[in-house]
Amino acid sequence: MSAAIDNPVVGRPKLLGLDRMGLEGLLMDWGEPRFRAAQILQWLHTRQVTDFSLMSNISKSLRARLASDVDLSEPTVLRAQQAADGTRKWLLGLEDGNAIETVFIPEDDRGTLCISSQVGCSLACSFCATGAQGLNRNLQTHEIIAQVRIARQELGLDAISNVVFMGMGEPLLNLKQVLPAIRLLLDDFAYGLSSRRVTVSTAGVLPGLAQLGKESPVNLAISLHATQNAIRDELVPINRHYPLAELLDACRQYPLPPRRRITFEYVMLDGINDQDQHARELVRLLQGIPALVNLIPFNPFPQTKYRRSSPARIDAFREIILRAGLMTVTRKTRGEDIDAACGQLAGQVRAGRSSIPLRLTN
Ligand code: SAH
Q1: CA–CA dist 295, 314 (Å, integer)
Q2: How far is the CA of 269 from the centre of ligand 1 (A)?
Q3: Average pLDDT of 176-189?
Q4: Where are the domains of the chain?
Q5: Per-position DSSP letters for 243-301, written without gaps between them
Q6: Nearest CA to ligand 1 atom 5
Q7: Helices 141-155 & 175-186, crossing angle to 10 degrees?
Q8: Are 188 and 21 in contact (CB under 8 A)?
Q9: pLDDT on residue 168
Q10: 3-class DSSP state of 109
């Protein structure tokens, strides 16, 4: 990782960003037994108690050491908004003056938190508001996890059933910080989510995809959006490095747990990628992959050149892939009145580093 896009590690360790292994390492350095890690994680994450004096099952001396030697600082809520449909959005301020956005989407049977993995994004997808602002830096693990903590504080500890890495940023370009966050989400002594309820979405960063597959059984979503390289090069420029055939090969090789599907996200752009021919090409491309196609009506943002496909066009497109036997759902647009819908997250990215070139490796 280049130092430029990772916040420098200075000062005391950020306790809220340590996964079980990280915390065990710290405790062992201090000459403490390793099993304390699970107890501390439970206080900090499951119960969200950060006052060491309340941690009754931890020795007084360890509590004192924690109080003096670790950093508990977290992002702060700069703005909280609620949409007419109940969607919530928070703007969170980071230590260095940057800000990121996090969205909660309530549904009858679940509560989904959509979290950011970077401040801005380097991939510059032409239909995405975050892509228009460039990348400032990677989020640190405690900043990724803070999004879950703040939402649980505001909504109740049981409110979040699902977490999706579909906010600002490309998670596979920040795996070093994202993987420990995933481990905390899945750890029974932290957030205890089932791996079926955590989804990583990527525009197709293939080295990262292989690494994720090796390390973590979470759900995978691929931002596909086009069936021809010429169109995808425009919409998702990283396609020029990892074109469709390679991307779909990587999906075929992805070690998918049994009975799971890869979600393919497909934003419906009027006159660009929404014709019958594209639907037929999509069916052909996805042959042999356990797939779920997620059609996303385009969400406009200022200065965009694109328009959303009409509901009739989206239905016709959907009909073709359904009839070919592919599973498909059309994503309901949520939280539009507070700019909380897919691709509308902007946060506040401090200028100055947006010229960082596309990063292809971790
Ligand atoms: N970088 C990752 C994570 C972001 S996920 C990725 O690309 O997958 C955000 C999802 O919203 C992606 O599928 C993205 O393509 C989609 N999206 C971005 N801008 C959008 C817009 N304006 N309207 C609808 N969906 C959009």
Answers
A1: 8
A2: 13
A3: 98
A4: 15-69, 76-338
A5: -HHHHHHHHHHS-PPTT--EEEEEEEBTTTT-SHHHHHHHHHHTTTS-EEEEEEE----
A6: 166
A7: 40
A8: no
A9: 95
A10: coil
Residues 6 or more apart in contact with residue 220 via CB below 8 angstroms: 199, 200, 201, 202, 209, 212, 251, 254, 256, 262, 263
Label residue 302 by pLDDT band (50, 70, 90): confident
- Other CB atoms within 10 A of residue 124 CB: 18
Residue 8, pLDDT score: 62
pLDDT computed for residue 116 by the predictor? 97
CA of 223 to the centre of ligand 1 (A): 7
Whether 15-69 shares its CATH topology with 76-338 is answered: no
Q: Tell me the pairing of strands 99-106 and 291-297.
A: unpaired
* Phi, psi of 323, deg, nearest 5: -65, -25
Q: Which of 264, 301, 265 is nearest to 286 (CA)?
A: 264
Residues 29-41: what's their mean pLDDT?
97
Phi, then psi, of 141 in degrees rounded to 5: -55, -40
At the top level of CATH, the class of 76-338 is: alpha beta
CB-ligand 1 contact for 298 (6 Å cutoff)? yes
Question: For the residues 297-306, what does the mean pLDDT come to?
Answer: 93
Ligand 1 atom with minimal separation from the 222 CA: 8
Q: Is the CB of 342 under 6 A from ligand 1?
A: yes
Q: Which CATH architecture has domain 15-69?
A: Orthogonal Bundle (1.10)
Cα of 341 vs centre of ligand 1, distance in Å, is: 9
Three-class SS state of 123: coil
User: Could you give the CA distance from residue 85 to residue 81 in angstroms, rounded to a whole number?
Assistant: 12
358 pLDDT higher than 70: no
Q: Inter-axis angle of helices 244-253 and 206-215, to 10 degrees?
A: 10
